[in-house]
């Protein structure tokens, strides 16, 4: 066999390897189940996306994965919306960690939200300054979470569920806060 033919076959084998791995990766990622969220699903909008930073998935408008990847410094794929009923935008990193973005309408004043949200997401839930009108962070329910109140009709929550129930790390909480900071700079979808 000539040297050029050997290189050509090596190239074919290298190209076939990722194709063979994609179904296995997808199968293992689909087995990861998100924890149930305490958030209500936001009703979808029929008037299209408010920004090119979003992609429409059924009734949801989700931030593009590039927004999540840039904020965290970790490559996330997605979004998809299949997590057992919660209307969330879901992203997966290569380690199998699942990041969820949920937009909803709290339907309450800032004062009431501030009084109830920390107990809804798990204590301790310290305030995060400089993020929306009010924000709280926590790692007490097995995931890293930040909830951000922007108005009585605009709230965003970002959670990161470690793969296979692993312990939440401080860097994962830092990642969800970074995503929250990026999302409040964007127009609210819908």
Topology, element by element:
Layout: H1 3-30, E1 54-57, E2 60-63, H2 65-72, E3 76-80, E4 89-93, E5 98-104, H3 110-121, E6 134-138, E7 144-151, E8 154-161, H4 170-184
Antiparallel strand pairs: 1-2, 3-4, 4-5, 5-8, 6-7, 7-8
Structure description:
Helix content is 33%, strand content 24%. The protein has 190 residues and is α+β, with helices and mostly antiparallel strands. The chain folds into two domains: 31 residues; 151 residues, Protein Transport Mog1p, Chain A, CATH 3.40.1000. Strand 6 and strand 7 form a beta hairpin. Helix 2 crosses helix 4.
CATH architecture term of the largest domain: 3-Layer(aba) Sandwich
Give the strand order, joined by hyphens, for the main sheet.
Answer: 3-4-5-8-7-6
Strand content: 15-25%
From the N-terminal CA to the C-terminal CA, the straight-line distance is 60 Å
Order of helices and strands: HEEHEEEHEEEH
